[in-house]
Specification:
The structure holds three protein chains of three kinds. Chain B contains five helices and five strands; from the N terminus they run E-H-H-H-E-E-H-E-E-H. By secondary structure, chain B is α+β, with helices and mostly antiparallel strands. Chain B has a single domain (54-221), classed as Muramoyl-pentapeptide Carboxypeptidase, domain 2 (2-Layer Sandwich). Helix content of chain C is 30%, strand content 17%. Chain C has a five-stranded antiparallel β-sheet. Chain C has a two-stranded antiparallel ribbon with strand order 1-2. The chains are: A alpha+beta, B alpha+beta, C alpha+beta.
């Protein structure tokens, strides 16, 4: 499947097969989740990042089924570049109605960045002015977990983390994703 | 009510404890991106009509419920947690809504007025539909009910039998509570499952006003 | 379309995917009165304009060009089974009489055995590319079983009357319902048996009217 037809697929799924709701409800709900974590963990932002990632991971394990069912994808991606394309053009499109740009491929095609021009989760957000949050908190860290969890279910172990965030005063919002390995559990016949 | 100690303020800062410009003075430690616009540069109506997928919300909400479940004792405690989340969302929605109404915004001073505002304007803004009914509880002077045949947050949720008392729409109850509080109509709002044949997920929000609200209502408008 | 089907039906255009009604027609399309032909045309126009889907079970025509008459009503789905990644049975429900009831232990064995056979048949496939599928259809004199394995390894098995075309459409729809009412339910634990009232309700609503 070519890159343009994927873009078309993403567009089609978003338009015809997606129930939609008010974006601000999602934004504010996410905000409430992060704020609650910050409060519960007493401003330990490293731990907040970890929790967000974990919650995202749990979501990813489930979200992948919704993604596959709605997008009707039945073929595995041929390579990691394809995977990146699908994540951006179909995945992000159908859940968050954005298409982050893929950039900065490593020479071995195992690492890339997603550049977020728009980030619906972070509309309305300014990090706390406590001299700490801007250095430590990755506000949208849940997204990393989602990608990690979802790809794990389709036999890819990846590492995902933010390297830049506009909320921290950077010029871009950038997530780095690297392929650790393909999980070979195709044949469970031998185990147990 | 100091339930909102969240570090994140809503973008519209009319009632925020620190005036908006305070964080833009030289004393701020926050860094702002030079190329990207901060929340102060963006129009607040930018996201007024934008949409996201219901699935995205369902997963987020589901995870919120699961996460809340880990640290609670019993159903009531869980509902309280969800109510608190809703409360935080409600406070911000109210600000947005009133700001958007602009000059036509009016301050509701009567119980019926504020309840109608909730079941119509607020409900429509958040869920794109009005609430299904608004009733007064006959036996109790201070209780009202708003019902929703199919609360959005519950669309995909099936509560297990052993927790049958739970209704995750406690989240919406929190939103309603925040809006009532914001209008100085302090009340307790709880969500109850009240299924009908057509609507297995029908939910009733029971609103119980604090005594001072009724007292004021009586003073200002004569007894009702 | 086999000629000997004697029940013809016109499916109504529906306002929501997943819902449908139908009217049984005595004669074929030619004998339609002007009135009903007009009604049909109107339905089709509405469907074109609004992009409503034809959700008729057996309709595989590209929407919304979908056929008018020939949705056969005599569709019987006997049972639906769902297997988790490890081949454990996490859901089993009978919808229509037609299969003998097995003991719950036998269902588990059936699931495990099929899981193993499926794994081996996907190995045996001569095309060596990734995603080669294993066994998809099992047919006997009295039933046909269709298997659909998702990319995550979950399997959906649908048992139906023999010679049912387009069972894959049914299976896919079951998958969609699963992704909505099982995966989005925070009280469901992944890989565990499914006890979700919403899933059961929507699944029955989808499968039952097609008797």
């Amino acid at each position: 499947m070519s890159s343009t037809s994927r873009a078309r697929l993403g567009e089609e799924v978003w338009k015809t097969r997606t129930d939609k709701i008010n974006a601000e409800l999602v934004t504010l709900t996410y905000g409430s989740v992060v704020a609650q974590l910050c409060k519960d963990l007493d401003g330990d932002y490293a731990e907040v990042n970890k929790q967000l990632d974990k919650m995202g991971y749990n979501i990813g394990l489930r979200l992948i089924e919704d993604f596959l069912a709605k997008s009707n994808m039945q073929q595995k991606c041929a390579n990691f570049r394809d995977t990146a394309d699908v994540i951006s053009k179909v995945g992000f499109k159908m859940f968050l109605n954005i298409t982050p740009t893929i950039a900065n491929w490593s020479s071995d095609s195992k690492q890339f960045s997603l550049m977020f021009d728009e980030n619906p989760l972070a509309d309305f957000v300014e990090l706390p002015d406590d001299g700490k949050a801007q250095a430590e908190l990755w506000y949208s860290n849940m997204l990393c977990g989602v990608i990690r969890g979802a790809l794990e279910m389709v036999q890819m172990q990846v590492d995902a983390h933010f390297v830049n965030d506009v909320l921290r005063g950077h010029d871009t919002t950038e997530m780095r994703i690297s392929l650790v390995r393909y999980i070979d559990d195709e044949m469970p016949a031998d185990d147990e | 009510m100091n339930r909102d100690t969240s570090p994140f303020r809503p973008a519209s800062t009319g009632a925020s404890p620190t005036p908006k410009h305070a964080s833009l003075t030289a004393s701020t430690n926050l860094r702002y991106s030079l190329t990207r616009k901060s929340i102060y540069d963006r129009h607040l109506n930018r996201t007024k009509t934008s949409e996201l997928s219901k699935s995205a919300f369902a997963f987020l909400f589901g995870e919120m419920v699961q996460h809340a479940q880990k640290k609670v004792y019993g159903v009531q405690d869980l509902e309280k947690k969800l109510n608190q989340h809703g409360y935080a969302v409600g406070q911000r929605f109210l600000e947005l809504l009133l700001w958007r109404e602009g000059r036509t915004a009016k301050r509701e001073t009567r119980i019926l007025g504020i309840l109608q505002f909730i079941s119509h304007s607020l409900y429509r803004a958040i869920f794109q539909k009005p609430a299904d009914t608004l009733e007064k509880v006959r036996e109790n002077e201070d209780e009202y009910m708003i019902s929703d045949n199919d609360p959005l947050v519950n669309s995909y949720i099936s509560v297990p039998k052993e927790m049958s008392q739970l209704n995750c729409a406690a989240f919406i109850a929190g939103i309603i509570e925040a809006v009532l509080d914001g209008h100085c109509f302090p009340a307790k709002v709880t969500a109850h499952t009240a299924p009908s044949d057509m609507w297995p997920g029908r939910t009733v929000f029971l609103i119980k006003f604090e005594p001072e609200v009724l007292e004021r209502e009586g003073l200002r408008h004569g007894s009702t | 379309m086999p000629a000997d089907w004697d029940i013809w039906a016109v499916s109504d255009w529906v306002t929501k995917p997943g819902e449908w009604r139908n009217e049984v027609m005595e004669e074929g399309p030619e004998e339609l009165s002007t009135g009903s032909r007009k009604r049909e045309r109107k339905k089709r126009r509405q469907a074109r304009e609004t992009g409503f889907k034809c959700s008729a079970l057996l309709c595989s025509e590209p929407r919304p060009r979908c056929c008018r008459w020939y949705h056969i009503v005599a569709m019987v789905v006997y049972a639906v089974l769902i297997l988790n990644k490890a081949g454990g049975l996490i859901f089993q429900r009978d919808f229509n009489p037609g299969l003998q009831k097995l003991t719950s232990n036998d269902y588990l064995i059936l699931a495990g055995t099929f899981h193993g056979v499926h794994a081996i048949t996907s190995q045996i496939s001569p095309t060596n590319e990734t995603g080669a599928s294993g066994l998809e259809v099992l047919e006997s004199e009295n039933f046909v079983m269709r298997c659909f394995q998702t990319l995550t390894g979950t399997k959906f098995l649908v048992f139906a009357e023999p010679r049912q075309p387009n069972l894959d459409v049914v299976v896919r729809r079951v998958y969609e319902l699963y992704s909505d009412y099982v995966m989005k339910n925070p009280f469901y634990q992944i890989e565990m048996p499914i006890r979700s009232e919403g899933f059961e309700r929507h699944l029955s609503a989808y499968i039952k009217p097609h008797q």
